[in-house]
């Protein structure tokens, strides 16, 4: 039976626009979340810290999520300094190119304190905020946190994952070169963990689209790899723009499987990926069965 991963979770919501705030709060409560909404960063800060705000001492308020605009830098800083065990959803405006379908979203998708967030799970959701996209982001963050906790504890669930049967007929996975382009450290760790449990170890990583293109160039092109996982939203160059440049430089046909990775599960996004040149599509959070399917020699999501 379906289990609502958001049920009972506590979320602090910061949104200046009254209409948007009320709409999001209503939707989040319908998903089972306990929402505390604020109209400003300062009011949210006052809620999170003791009256002597300069000390930024952590109070005993239980919290699972903070959902705020990317410009709420003081709030983000306080959460990091308090070492709260939470996940953050940053609400961002899309870049002009992204509105047109393809483009570099780095200026808009970079989170505040990008290098200080450390292992704090965080994702970006673009404005105007669709309820479905926000829910997907929150569920992805829940799954990511659960996988990380299981990995640390070495729980039975992860042991089962290690021995999960593969649809590939060979007893051992064949040698396979894999490139993962993903800027989120947590997502990268989860993807690497799943691939290694499935027996794949020849893996190259890139933390943004520019580095991904450099890895392709250094290895003579995309056909050096058997599978390329490409996140659609990365600093400097998003996945759509990377594939566009790949086609311009290496031609329209690739000998590898090109997998679009996104938290956006909408049909129009999937179709846009295939139109751009991706051969497969995977929705976050990463699932073992979805990744296994990619390596099926006859698999194709493009039908």
UniProtKB/TrEMBL annotation:
Where the record annotates domain Response regulatory, the positions are 177-299
Q: Name one Pfam family in it.
A: Response_reg
Identify the SMART domains for this entry. REC
Q: Which residues carry this modification: 4-aspartylphosphate?
A: 231
**Gene Ontology terms: biological process:** phosphorelay signal transduction system
State the source organism's domain of life.
Eukaryota
Instruction: Name the keywords, alphabetized.
Output: Phosphoprotein
Keyword set includes Phosphoprotein? yes
InterPro entries of this UniProt entry?
A: CheY-like_superfamily (IPR011006), Sig_transdc_resp-reg_receiver (IPR001789)
List the CDD domains hit by this protein, alphabetically: REC_hyHK_CKI1_RcsC-like (cd17546)
Kindly give the PROSITE patterns that the UniProt entry links to this protein: RESPONSE_REGULATORY
Query: Does the keyword Phosphoprotein belong to this entry?
Result: yes
Q: Which PANTHER family match?
A: HISTIDINE KINASE, HYBRID SIGNAL TRANSDUCTION HISTIDINE KINASE J
Q: What is this protein called?
A: Response regulatory domain-containing protein
């Amino acid at each position: 039976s379906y289990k609502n991963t958001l049920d009972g979770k506590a979320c602090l919501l910061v949104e200046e626009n009254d209409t948007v705030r009320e709409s999001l709060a209503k939707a989040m409560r319908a998903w089972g979340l306990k929402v505390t909404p604020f109209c400003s960063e300062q009011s949210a800060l006052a809620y999170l810290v003791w009256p002597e705000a300069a000390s930024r001492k952590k109070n005993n308020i239980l919290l699972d999520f903070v959902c705020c605009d990317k410009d709420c830098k003081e709030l983000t800083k306080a959460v990091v300094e308090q070492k709260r065990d939470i996940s953050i959803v940053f609400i961002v405006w899309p870049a002009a190119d992204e509105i047109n379908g393809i483009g570099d979203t780095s200026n808009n998708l970079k989170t505040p304190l990008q290098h200080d967030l450390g292992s704090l799970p965080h994702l970006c959701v673009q404005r105007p905020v669709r309820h479905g996209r926000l829910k997907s982001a929150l569920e992805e963050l829940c799954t990511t946190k659960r996988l990380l906790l299981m990995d640390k504890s070495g729980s039975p669930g992860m042991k089962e994952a290690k021995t999960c049967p593969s649809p590939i007929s060979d007893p051992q996975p064949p040698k396979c070169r894999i490139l993962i382009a993903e800027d989120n450290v947590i997502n990268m760790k989860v993807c690497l963990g799943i691939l290694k449990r499935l027996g794949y170890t020849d893996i190259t990583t890139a933390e943004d689209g520019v580095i991904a293109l450099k890895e392709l160039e250094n290895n003579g092109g995309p056909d050096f790899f058997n599978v390329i996982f490409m996140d659609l939203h990365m600093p400097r160059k998003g996945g759509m723009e990377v594939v566009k440049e790949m086609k311009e430089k290496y031609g329209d046909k690739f000998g590898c499987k090109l997998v679009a990775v996104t938290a956006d599960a909408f049909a129009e996004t999937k179709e846009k990926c295939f139109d751009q040149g991706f051969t497969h599509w995977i929705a976050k959070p990463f699932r073992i069965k979805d990744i296994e399917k990619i390596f099926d020699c006859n698999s194709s999501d493009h039908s």
